[in-house]
Design brief:
single chain, alpha/beta, Rossmann fold, six-stranded parallel beta sheet, globular
Length: 361
C-alpha cells in the first residue's frame, strides 16, 4: 500500500471545503490501495516559525512520498499574500518529497483597486513558483483557462472536484409523480456581502418569472449563507406565488436528500465551473443545473445537463429556468446527461482514478 500526504493550511469555518475534499478523495483512494494521510500546517494557531519547524520535523520520513499540497490563497495567508506556501514547498523539496500542488484557486483574486491588483500579482507569482517546484500540478478547471500558467504546461492536468454531499439517485416514485407535484428549485449556499445581494436579486427574478409558467413552485435555499440571506430573500419574493423555505446549515445527508427531491439546482454564485462543489452536489443527485457561464466554464462540465447563460444576464437566467421547469422532455434529457457525466467525471471513484493515473501510483 502506498502512502500519500495531503497537506492543508489553516482550517476554514464553519465548514472546511478542503478538508472535506481530502476526506472524500482519501476514501476513494483507499479502495485502490493508497493510504491518504491528512496533515495540517497550523500556522494561524502557533505562528509561522513554529508551524514550519513542526513541518520540518514531521516531514523527515517523507522522502520519496507524494505530498499533495492543497492551495488556496487564504489557506496560506491572512490577507491573500501566501508567502508562507513558498517556505512550505522549500521544506518539502529539502526532504526530497514528490510534490503535487492541487490548485483550488484557479486564478488570483479579482478586483480593480491597487491593493487588489497587487494581491493578484503576488498570488499569481506564488502559483507560478509552486508550479515550477512541483512534479505535478492539478487544477480543477480546464488547463487552458488558467492564464497564469507558463506556456509549457506538461505538468498540469485538470481533475474536477466532486460533490461535498453524498451522491443520491432520484427515487423512482419521484419520477412517476413529477408531473403531478409542485416544482422545486434548490439553491445550495449563498455568498455574503455585495455578491450575496446580487445573488438574492438574481434568484428572486428567476423564480418570479418561472412561477408565471409553473404555478406551483417551491424555492428551497440551504447551506452556508442561506440563513443570513433569509430576510432579503423573503422580501424579494414577497407578493409572488413562490413558496420559500430557508433551511441554513444541515448535515450532508439531509442536503443530499433535499437535492434529490428537487427538480432543478439554480446556481448563481458566480460562474459554474468544475471547481464549484455546491453545483456538483446538485449533479450528484441527478439535477439539471441552471446558472451562469464564465471564462473558466468548460469541459467536462459542459457535457452534463447544464443550461448556462452569460454571467450577469439575469433575464436569460430567468428564461432558462422557466424552460427547464416547464418542458418535461428537456428536463429528462438534461437529467440523463447529468447522471452520465457525473458517473464518468465527477464521482469520487472517477476522481481518484484520475489521481492514480496522474501520479502513476
Amino acid at each position: 500500500m502506498s502512502r500519500l500526504v495531503a497537506l492543508l493550511g489553516r482550517r476554514d469555518a464553519p465548514t472546511d471545503g478542503l478538508e472535506d475534499y481530502c476526506t472524500r478523495l482519501g476514501r476513494a483512494l483507499l479502495t485502490r490501495g493508497h493510504h491518504f494521510d491528512r496533515i495540517r500546517v497550523p500556522w494561524r494557531d502557533v505562528g509561522w516559525l513554529r508551524a514550519l519547524w513542526r513541518l520540518s520535523l514531521e516531514s523527515a520520513g517523507w522522502r520519496g512520498r507524494w505530498v499533495l499540497v492543497q492551495y488556496t490563497a487564504m489557506s496560506w495567508s491572512r490577507r491573500g499574500f501566501p508567502l508562507g506556501l513558498v517556505a512550505v514547498l522549500a521544506i518539502l523539496r529539502l526532504r526530497s518529497c514528490r510534490i503535487a500542488v492541487v490548485f483550488h484557486d484557479p486564478a488570483g483574486f479579482p478586483g480593480r483597486r491597487w491593493i487588489d491588483r497587487l494581491r493578484r500579482t503576488y498570488q499569481e507569482w506564488v502559483m507560478r513558483r509552486a508550479y515550477h517546484w512541483a512534479e505535478r500540478a492539478v487544477l480543477n478547471v480546464p488547463v487552458d483557462r488558467a492564464t497564469w500558467l507558463p506556456l509549457r504546461r506538461s505538468k498540469a492536468t485538470c481533475i474536477p472536484v466532486g460533490s461535498n454531499v453524498p451522491a443520491t439517485p432520484r427515487r423512482p416514485e419521484r419520477e412517476r409523480t413529477r408531473e403531478q407535484k409542485a416544482r422545486t428549485v434548490a439553491v445550495f449556499s449563498v455568498t455574503g456581502g455585495k455578491s450575496g445581494h446580487r445573488e438574492v436579486a438574481d434568484i428572486a427574478r428567476a423564480v418570479s418569472r418561472a412561477v408565471e409558467a409553473v404555478p406551483c413552485l417551491r424555492l428551497v435555499v440551504m447551506g452556508r449563507g442561506s440563513k443570513e440571506a433569509e430576510e432579503a430573500l423573503r422580501r424579494a419574493v414577497d407578493g409572488t406565488n413562490v413558496e420559500l423555505s430557508v433551511l441554513g446549515l444541515l448535515p450532508a445527508e439531509d442536503i443530499s436528500r433535499l437535492l434529490a427531491e428537487a427538480d432543478v439546482l439554480l446556481f448563481v454564485r458566480g460562474q459554474f465551473c468544475t471547481q464549484r462543489t455546491s453545483g456538483i452536489a446538485g449533479m450528484a443527485c441527478g439535477l439539471p443545473v441552471v446558472g451562469y457561464a464564465g471564462p473558466q466554464t468548460g469541459p467536462p462540465l459542459t457535457e452534463a445537463g447544464v443550461t448556462l447563460v452569460p454571467q450577469g444576464n439575469a433575464e436569460a437566467l430567468a428564461d432558462a429556468l422557466t424552460r427547464v421547469l416547464s418542458d418535461g422532455g428537456l428536463w429528462q434529457r438534461l437529467h440523463e446527461q447529468t447522471v452520465d457525466a457525473y458517473r464518468r467525471y465527477f464521482a469520487w471513484d472517477a476522481i481518484a482514478e484520475r489521481f492514480v493515473e496522474t501520479l502513476q501510483l
